[in-house]
């Protein structure tokens, strides 16, 4: 056996930022400004060897580590006090092989850059909407967006992962997981959440040809809630799976309900398809148009810009339309929202033979295959004095809706969920623990809601 290096032998490589460095403040910042942590060192890796060195360095010194790509962890899991942040954001190559219809994407890429690079070759990957979310966390947790009902989740299109894992007592090494080798790690990387097993450095995705798409936006006044939301919930899963749609109910102070969606088809067809929605309530604004796909990604990204810097978010899945009581709860909470920056957002996922629901709940680590919709309850604020009120509102809201919704999406993590393994992973949690035990037996990659090391199966 190769002798393990002695403690403290490895040096950090890459762009290294420490406290006192002029760029330290910017480098330590999370997307969610509710968290302000002070790491001992941040390493911006430029190649895989920098990641390996950083993991070894941390293990030799017993320093806690975190993997970071786009900083979008809603509960600040990609940062740590007194530890090392291993940041891959400077590893951002994208190569498209149009003959094989695959793209090799380094994990430091923000989503907007992935969309742009793929668009240059007129291909697309089903993925999210936030332009600055990191592809690593997005894909590892599932990845939902406006192509989901037709082409599945981002993780459903993930064919191969290159990952730095812990090795031996102090070491680290790179492995490649695909259908043929380390297939259990590929399975876990498709919905098992980011940062649990190692640090992914490169993904290989299946991509699809794309040109133009048709998009819509319909706005109603708040008073039409009881008519619009039930109509959308019946319509969204039953319409063709070439159309994925969303609905957002704002706080009563804002007073709007907005539904948007994207169709792989013409604007004439889209006008026809949205008729049931137009009959619900009285829309005050309707937009339908055909645009190049890259323009559509910018249209859907607009909602993620200029938001309040601090937030609390929780998620849940709907397997059936909400009954009248569920709608009443939404009305009540948004009538008493802590401020105008509180919303309920929902997106269609399943129904009508959608690509998401056609996959078995155990075929990947993402278990919520039969859900028709996903919900995101969010509160946002600027001043710390508002924090408790906002967090409590989200907590009470979640509790009130619990009889009508199920689980949560691992990419909308919520530290207040007691039984989070069941909420995020459902039936797949025992298997995820076994994968964790195999690839990270020393629990090097851990955070508040990381997958624990499973027990050895009895022989």
Please characterize this protein's 3D structure.
- With 459 residues, this protein is an alpha+beta fold.
- It has 14 helices and 18 strands.
- The strands form four sheets. A seven-stranded antiparallel β-sheet has the order 15-12-14-13-17-18-16. The protein has a five-stranded antiparallel β-sheet with strand order 5-6-10-8-9.
- Strand 5 and strand 6 form a beta hairpin.
- Helix 3 runs antiparallel to helix 10.
- The two termini are 26 Å apart.
The percent of residues in helical segments reads 25-40%
Distance between the termini: 26 Å
Strands of the biggest beta sheet: in what spatial order? 15-12-14-13-17-18-16
User: Helix tally?
Assistant: 14
Shape: globular
Radius of gyration from CA coordinates: 22 Å
Overall pLDDT level: 96
Q: Any low-confidence stretches, pLDDT <50, length ≥5?
A: none
- Sheet bearing the most strands, described? 7 strands, antiparallel
Task: Summarize the model shown.
The protein is of the alpha+beta class and 459 residues long. The chain has helices at residues 24-28, 48-61, 111-120, 135-141, 148-151, 183-189, 225-235, 267-273, 275-278, 293-301, 324-335, 387-401, 420-425, 429-439, and strands spanning 15-17, 41-44, 65-68, 84-87, 94-97, 102-106, 123-124, 158-167, 171-177, 199-206, 208-209, 212-221, 243-250, 256-263, 285-292, 310-318, 343-348, 373-381.
Tags for this entry?
seven-stranded antiparallel beta sheet, 459 residues, alpha+beta, 14 helices
